Every structure is written in structure tokens, then in C-alpha cells.
Amino acid sequence: MRHPILVILCAAGVVTLSACEKTIDKDAVDREFAGVNAIDGTGLNDVMLKAADPTEAAAYFQRANKIDPGRIDLMRGLAQSLVRAKRSQEATIAWGRVVDHEDATNEDRVALADALIRNNDWEKAEQVLTSIPPTHETYQRYRLEAMIADSHKDWKKADSFYETAVGLTTRPAPVLNNWGYSKLSRGEYASAEKMFYDTLRHDPSMFTAKNNLVLARGAQGNYTLPVMQMTQIERAELLHTLGLSAIKRGDVEIGKGLLRDAIETHPQHFDAASTALAALETSISN
After folding, report:
1. Which residue has the higher pLDDT, 18 or 262?
2. Can you give the residue range of the structural domain that contains 88?
3. CA angle at residue 73 from 71 to 77, to 5 degrees?
4. HEC states along the chain?
5. Distance CA 16, CA 9 (A)
6. Are the C-beta atoms of residues 200 and 237 closer than 8 Å to each other?
7. Do the Cβ atoms of 276 and 240 come closer than 8 Å?
8. What is the pLDDT of residues 7-50, one digit of tens each?
């Protein structure tokens, strides 16, 4: 006799629960869960920062900041995503807000200086770096200090900062490439060439270092490509760079030959090299 009563009570409970469910605002629940997913999923935040498309990541953190404003981790996420998306002006504003937060760190100020340099605001970047205590010694800080010194053509200070930065990272290729380009801009071509070889030893895939290496060799009148890893398209582009270097030095016939090699090497139509060669031949004939 007890079983039917139990069934009736259970059924009554289900009816009561259903009635309660009907009073719940489904949209409100969806919004709450959307908020939880957006701002409390630390794993998702990391994925958005490191793996997601930068534009999508920026939109994600913009939404998260609206849901829970004032959270410095979300503010940092937005600023970092804007830097990745190459939206430099917006990134400087976002990092400025992070730095104004009561929980901001010196690393945040370094990130602001980096964003300012990307936005070509060198003077303000220098002011931000100067405001950071000298005891804050990091790879990123010294890399930026070196770039600031470069902008003032203070080569001695730049070399000191670059050397320190290289010693503070296990992945020195980007800073070595910057250092090499600094040497290139000073006219220290042999030293720059050595620096770019060093860069490629740490990161054989960095095309900017390959191109810079070719520029350094071309500036010394060396018009042969160095032995290194390169795709067919990269080879064509490097021949193009070398050809322009030769022409700039006055070795026009050598430059024309290198441009022809670039056109023949490229697997598709190489418009830049073709245009340069055509313009050169037209000017010579005139």
C-alpha cells in the first residue's frame, strides 16, 4: 500500500518542479552561463590568448570585460589580443587602462611601452620605461631599452642592452635579429652578417633574418646566396633582395641578372621582380 503513495508524492514533486521551471527566465540563465563560460573558464582564456584568431580573441575579451568589468586578467587579455591583432592604437589604450589598475605590475608597464613602440610613440614609451624601477630586470624590458637606445643612435648603450637581453632568454632569435639590424643601420655590415647567422642558428625559419643576412652580404658586394634552409619562394625573394642591393651599389648588370634569376626561380609570377627589371631596362634604354 505504501508504493502508490510514494509514486503519487514523486509525481507531485515533478509537477511542482515543472511549475517552478516555468517561472525561470531562460534568457537570463543563458546569459549567466555565457558569462561563466566567458570569464571563469581559465583554460578557455589561455586558448583564446595563444591559439585563437587575434581578432576573435579581442572580441571575446571585449565581451568578457563588459560582463565583469574591472578584472585585470580580462583587461590584460584584451590588451594582449589587440597587440596580436596589430591594432596598435587600441592596444596602447587597453594597456594604459591595465597600468591604471590598482593591481598593475611593472611587467604591465613594460607591455605598455612595447605597445607604444609598435604605435610609433617612442617618446612616451621611453617615459614609461624610465618610470620602471631598475631592479625590474627582464628580457622584454632590456629588449625595449635597446630599441630606444637605437632610436637615439646611442650604439654603446644599445649594444649593452641587447647583450643583456640575449642573456635573459632561451629564445634569443628575435632580439639577435634586432641587434643585427641595428648593426646594419650603422654600416657595420660584417658584424651584422655574423649576427644574422647567429639568429638563424637559433631559428632557421625566420625569413626576416634571412632577408637581413642577404642585405648585409649585398652591402659588402657579396652577391651569392648563403647556404641555409629556404623554400623556392624564399629563394626567389632573396634573389630579388640581392638584385636590388647590387643595383643600389651601382652593379647594375649583376643586379639585372639576379632579378632574372628571381623571376625564373619563383614558382608563380613574381610581379615585384618583373616590375623592377622592366623599370630598370626602360630607364637604361631611355
Report:
1. 262
2. 46-134
3. 120
4. CHHHHHHHHHHHHHHHHHHHHHCCCHHHHHHHHHHHHHHCCHHHHHHHHHCCCHHHHHHHHHHHHHHCCCCHHHHHHHHHHHHHCCCHHHHHHHHHHHHHCCCCCHHHHHHHHHHHHHCCCHHHHHHHHHCCCCCCCCHHHHHHHHHHHHHCCCHHHHHHHHHHHHHCCCCCHHHHHHHHHHHHHHCCHHHHHHHHHHHHHHCCCCHHHHHHHHHHHHHCCCCCCCCCCCCHHHHHHHHHHHHHHHHHCCCHHHHHHHHHHHHHHCCCCCHHHHHHHHHHHHHHHC
5. 10
6. no
7. yes
8. 433 434 443 434 444 444 445 434 443 454 445 555 788 888 88
pTM of the shown model: 0.80
Cell numbers linked to 15: 509537477
Reported as a pLDDT band with limits 50, 70 and 90, residue 169 is very high
How many other CB atoms sit within 10 Å of the CB of residue 33? 10
| Buried-state track 116-136, b at ≥16 Cβ within 10 A, e below 16 | bbbbebeeebbebbeebeeee
**Dihedral sign computed on CA atoms, order 268, 269, 271, 276:** positive
CB burial of residue 22 (10 Å; 0-12, 13-18, 19+): exposed
Total number of domains constituting the chain: 1
Which triple of cell numbers denotes residue 34?
555565457
Say if 52 falls within a structural domain.
yes
119 inside domain: yes
Instruction: Give the domain CATH number at 94.
Output: 1.25.40.10
